[in-house]
Amino acid sequence: MGTVCNQPPTLNITVKDVSLIFPPQQQSLRNSIFLSNIDRVLNFPVETVHFFPSHKDFPPHLVAEILKTTLSELLVPYDFLAGRLRSNPETGRLEIDCNSAGIGFAVASSDYALDDIGDLVYPNPAFGQLVCKTVDSLQQDNQPLCIVQVTSFKCGGFAMGIVTSHVTFDGLSFKIFLDNLAALAAGKPLALTPCNDRRLLAARSPPCVSFPHLELAKFHDSTPPVIDPTSEALDFKVFRLTSEDIANLKDKAKASGGAHSDARITGFNVVTALVWYCKALSWDKPDPERVSTLLYAVNIRPRLVPPLPISYAGNAVLTAYGRAKCKEIEEAPFAGLVELVTEGAKRMTDEYARSAIDWGEIYQGFPDGEFLVSSWWKLGFEEVDYPWGRPRYSCPVVFQRKDIILLFPDIEDKNGVNVLVSLPAKEMSKFENLFRNYLP
């Protein structure tokens, strides 16, 4: 089920120009943007690449010019994006200084044609060359919160690589940002006006922690596992699940339901249950009594009272968890595993979410578990309709982390999913055998 793919180790990128894009008016609507406790934990870059085939009416150089103009316009409703991270001099709290200092924009070219770089679904470290990570002319403390790179291929196709600080967007708000970018590029109004009031997710005063929050760990001298990269040598593989595989997993969960009537048998839940089973039982030194903790993100916008606006532009996701001993994971019927996954999202009520945010106000900790399932599967980046068409494929620039398993969409099978796993060789072998043998 794991796949491998031959791809060029380098894309022979030549960067032709790096510049800054500013909003049309240099004065922002506000002096600074408050960052919630969810935002503050996510102070790291997120890189995505969006591949487009050639279009006779939109050659890459024209797309670059359209994007430069459009991004400038977009920095009015997204004024914080042109700002810089800073520590508030009075409170010491991290915030965004809305100083209109601009975002980065790079133009580059590759010696390859788009069809030469192999299977776009299969993670290629060389895709990192399609993203401009810093503007070299600026000091480290003055780096943009967003940099866009347009890379042309010999065939006339191109890639749009985007890096943003995670404090600016979660996956859902970034999708709305892309929809708005596409709308303005086509001369249309915004698809959805962003809601920039991040105080909607401010901690209560005084903070009130009403749950134990086993998914969180206090920050001491070192970061917990989900934030801490490993120094181990890792293999990585992509496990492709077709829509038929996922339908079979759902049937398997329904057939083993019995007492587990609370299990929500969705595509995400059955795939995550399978991944948890394989990950928990693939440890090099098996221990039936070891407790395995699965983490995954839950969108809290519709779960709060009152609900957050769909257009909320910051991070409105919290970490849900499933927790069980390895022997319980091994012996449970599949519906039981799905129910354990389901419980994480069911736990995420308004009060639980507010309690987690208040916990961050007191402890300033991080998610803590054996591993995190990071899902890009249903975000819909590939459905954004630009004037030059929809992307052939959109994906994160992946990284090898033992403690993060990525779910991302397939090109051909819209209801299928690709599971990226990075593990030491012995554990990978066990994971692969467990994965293959568990499928119906």
From TrEMBL:
A Pfam family the protein falls into: Transferase
Annotated InterPro entries: CAT-like_dom_sf, Plant_Fungal_Acyltransferase
Family, as annotated: Belongs to the plant acyltransferase family.
Protein name (Swiss-Prot/TrEMBL): Omega-hydroxypalmitate O-feruloyl transferase
Organism field: Hibiscus sabdariffa (roselle)
